[in-house]
Amino acid sequence: MKPRVLVVDDEPTISDGLRLVLEREGYQVETAANTVGAMVRLESDEFDLALVDLMLPDGDGLHLLKLLKGRDPSLEVIIITGHGSIAKAVEATKEGAFYFVAKPFDADEMLALVAKALERRRLLAETSDLRRRLASLAAYGEMMGGSPAMTRVFEMLESVAGADANVLIIGESGTGKELAANAIHAKSPRAVGPLIKINCAALPKDLIESELFGHAKGAFTGATTDKPGLLEEAHQGSLLLDEIAEMPLDLQAKLLRVLEDHTVRRLGGGRSIPVDFRLISSTNRDPEAAVREGRLRQDLYFRINTVTVALPPLRERTTDIPLLAKAFLERFRAKHGRAVEGIDAEAYRRLLSYPWPGNVREMEHAIERAVLVARGKEITLADLPAALQAGESPMAGGVVPAPGSLEEIERASIIRALESTGWNKQAAAAILGLRRPTLYSKMRRHGIPQRRP
């Protein structure tokens, strides 16, 4: 769309002249003769730039500048005056004006300023959008991570959440499969409906069919009333079948019929009940191996894995450890009211070198335990679980960041953000939730070079 420009000047020769010059360059132009007229225009139209005379019949142009910026901080404003002064120019700049132009001005000079102001607005908009997108990639729902592996996961979750396709989430125990399912449901059109979760490995085999499909009164001893199953309860929402490869094969066949027919028949019931839910499945097994081993029906596997999301183990995204350590420390010291402020060098070194067979869940529990038992202001090696105290294991992949307290965790987090963005400081600052000057200041304080080593 063509940029929209508002000209506010009570001299018709100036406002009409600017209109002609700007429209000739392809801009859409509206004019106003005073502050009231300008604000009326803004109520009905959106503008990218305003050219404002300093002296208006009903007020000061600087006052209008404040009103314009208060309504839309991204609106660029150029102040025009025949009574220019350094003091006024400084004041206008402090209030957010892009430039201060004295009359008479050259048309080409004004067009160049307009182009620069609009380019600045575009760049700021792109920066803001990038910051929002990158910030969302550093945390997706309750999941955290800024490593390339997790960035790809977050992008995949974002792309599939809005669709209604079946999703299969695979990953080792503790990698966050349930959190991924929560995020998919929360960002889907079905978010207003229920999210029903079923752990297929936890339910006894003699109860799982009744829990899934429900039962009619008298279907078996003790069935004194009709009872809807969890498949019915998921109607118009989402259904998470956790550890689906542990579901008995006969029930897998019945589930497949439900997915094909979109109806459920309760145990002992005589009628089919329509159901409409989105299926999200998860497993900590290799699903293709489960099919070969006869644990998972091949036809069901083809039905549930329209989209597959693979969650990486923590040992394959070690650059996320500083971010997770800091986040868990902050969370649990606030939750339990503890005055723990950091992690000492030896304990932090162990967090980085440990292979984390239980993945993020194990790390979360380890940090919570350490916060609870720590006696000083820093978590020590003795505060960590016995498995971490036993000895260091070579860390799989990545470079171990400098060990130490929260200051050193911050340094490692900055380096991780820089590495994940190819040392793009603006993008790294967005990931970290910092202003770029603040990032530069922290980089200097931590001795981090301005360019990739």
Account of the protein in words:
- The protein is an alpha/beta fold and 453 residues long.
- The chain has three domains: 4-131, 3-Layer(aba) Sandwich (Rossmann fold); 142-312, P-loop containing nucleotide triphosphate hydrolases (Rossmann fold); 315-445, Orthogonal Bundle (Helicase, Ruva Protein, domain 3), CATH 1.10.8.
- Helix content is 47%, strand content 16%.
- It is built from 19 helices and 20 strands.
- It has helices at residues 12-24, 35-44, 61-71, 86-94, 107-138, 148-161, 177-186, 205-213, 230-233, 249-261, 287-292, 298-304, 321-336, 345-353, 359-373, 386-389, 406-420, 425-432, 436-445, and strands at 4-8, 28-32, 49-53, 55-56, 59-60, 76-81, 99-102, 139-140, 143-144, 167-170, 195-199, 214-215, 227-228, 237-242, 263-264, 273-274, 277-283, 307-310, 342-343, 378-379.
- The strands form seven sheets. Strands 2-1-3-6-7 form a five-stranded parallel β-sheet, with helices on both faces.
- It is extended.
- The relative contact order is 0.08.
Task: Write a brief structural summary.
By secondary structure, the chain is α/β, with parallel strands linked by helices. 47% of the residues lie in helices and 16% in strands. The protein is built from 19 helices and 20 strands.
CATH superfamily of the largest domain, called what?
P-loop containing nucleotide triphosphate hydrolases
Rounded radius of gyration (Å):
30 Å
Numbering strands along the chain, what is their spatial order in the largest sheet? 2-1-3-6-7
What gap, in angstroms, lies between the N and C termini?
Answer: 42 Å
Estimate the global geometry from the Cα principal axes: extended
Largest sheet: 5 strands, parallel
Q: Which structural class should the secondary elements be placed in?
A: alpha/beta
CATH architectural grouping of the largest domain: 3-Layer(aba) Sandwich
Proportion of residues in extended strands: 15-25%
- Can you tell me the CATH topology of the largest domain? Rossmann fold
